[in-house]
Design goal:
Layout lengths: L6 H16 L5 E10 L11 E2 L1 E13 L9 E5 L4 E5 L12 H14 L7 E7 L9 H17 L5 H16 L6 H8 L4 E6 L5 E5 L5 E7 L10 H16 L9 H6 L6 H26 L2 H19 L4 H13 L5 E7 L6 E7 L3 H16 L4 E5 L6 E4 L4
Parallel strand pairs: 4-6
Antiparallel strand pairs: 1-3, 1-13, 2-7, 3-6, 4-5, 7-8, 9-11, 9-12, 10-11
């Protein structure tokens, strides 16, 4: 089991990489965290309820104005893919689905439309948020970019408009029709707190994790997924079709009983997609309430039910994720596992588990070893805690 390096260590890495690539220290440093969703999966784009937290893994951008005073564009280097890209800061730009640069370009365009013109700059991006792991590396990159533009311009965006701007960038420039959860969590994360987010009203209710006895264990299956491959978008269309057929603005507006009364109006596949969303909303609200009253056994039961629904009704799990959840469930409460489920968009990525702190090392070893024996693949296992949202580390804002 690994713990993420302190933010200060990743910051030093970003500063050193910038100096190595550009021959001078950066003037600005900004950070934005990834996120993990404890429960409430696939509910955000259905106007539902989610319960994520910002994690202590980050995207950091180190930046300065160009050394060439005649420069008119942004030059950005990604350490994760070892590639430079040149981006427009003043004029139109084309979408870049499937390319990391699309996330950055979309935010730059959105910031300019919001009145924050970044001007030319040079930047280096480093990250310890796993790519394709369902921990929102893309949202962290978007929010870090918007935070950099705030630093470059000396102007702040309000938290919700900032998150919405980043979400729009992902829709239009990366080709992913994501909900608002990831960007809101990366912008608004709070240390020690989950965020119960109403994705319709955008109201955020901080919810304490679970006291000092429980912590969050993330296990990365190291099976990569790509949300631009169509599976994610297809499920969103299915949910919208179900809502349209049943005459409601979104699946958020249905109760389980209300859905059952109209089951005959939907084909079996669309019904199962809707059933996941409707029941997941109820599970999420129940989990937040259980956390507030300290009923961890109920939280664990709800997490298990969420995974079964994602596996069977929504069909976004995969054998590797199912195995990781089964291994955690086999350890169970007696061995320190409160609950476990897949997290993120699905088709690979990570599981999230609530684990008794005293059992962390044993649980991590047993799950990791069981996964290796069954698949021949190494899982990446790390512990995290609820963390602060995006911030400027160097260069400041007025």
């Amino acid at each position: 089991m690994s713990s993420p390096p302190p933010l200060e260590a990743l910051t030093r890495t970003a500063e050193a990489e910038f100096a190595r690539r550009l021959g001078r220290p950066p003037r600005w440093l900004v950070a934005a965290p990834g996120r993990v969703n404890l429960i409430g999966e696939q509910a955000d784009y259905n106007d539902g309820f989610v319960l994520p937290m910002a994690i202590d893994r980050h995207v950091i951008i180190a930046a300065d104005r160009p050394a060439d005073p005649a420069a008119t564009e942004a030059r950005v280097y990604s350490a994760a893919v070892d590639r430079w890209t040149t981006l427009a800061v003043n004029g139109p730009a084309a979408p870049q689905p499937g390319d990391w640069a699309g996330y950055v370009q979309g935010v730059l365009v959105g910031c300019r439309a919001a009145g924050l013109a970044p001007g030319p700059f040079e930047a280096v991006v480093v990250s310890d948020v796993p790519l394709g792991g369902g921990l929102s590396s893309s949202a962290a990159l978007e929010v870090a970019t918007a935070t950099l533009v705030e630093a470059l311009t000396g102007r702040r965006l309000e938290p919700l408009p900032k998150a919405l701007l980043c979400q729009q960038a992902e829709h239009e420039y990366a080709g992913v029709p994501c909900g608002i959860m990831d960007q809101c969590c990366s912008v608004m994360g709070r240390a020690g707190m989950l965020l119960l987010l109403d994705c319709r009203t955008r109201e955020v209710r901080p919810t304490p994790l679970a006291g000092p006895d429980a912590t969050v264990l993330i296990v990365n299956s190291n099976v990569k997924h790509a949300l631009t491959d169509g599976g994610y978008a297809a499920r969103r269309r299915q949910c919208e079709a179900a809502a349209h057929t049943l005459g409601v603005p979104a699946l958020r507006d249905l109760t389980p009983a209300g859905l059952e009364r109209q089951r005959g109006r939907l084909d079996d596949l669309t019904y199962r997609r809707a059933r996941h969303v409707v029941t997941e909303n109820e599970r999420t609200l129940a989990a937040a309430e259980a956390l507030r009253r300290g009923d961890l056994a109920e939280v664990g039961r709800l997490m298990s039910a969420s995974h079964a629904s994602l596996r069977d009704d929504y069909q976004v799990s995969c054998p590797e994720l199912d195995l990781l959840v089964e291994l955690a469930a086999a350890i169970g409460p007696a061995g320190g596992v409160i609950g476990s489920r897949m997290t993120g968009g699905g088709f690979g990525g990570c599981t999230v588990s609530l684990v008794r702190r005293a059992a962390l090392e044993d649980v991590a070893h047993r799950v990791g070893e069981g996964y290796r024996q069954k698949t021949g693949r190494a899982a990446t296992v790390f512990v995290t805690q609820p963390s602060e949202g995006a911030r400027v580390l160097k260069g400041g804002l007025p």
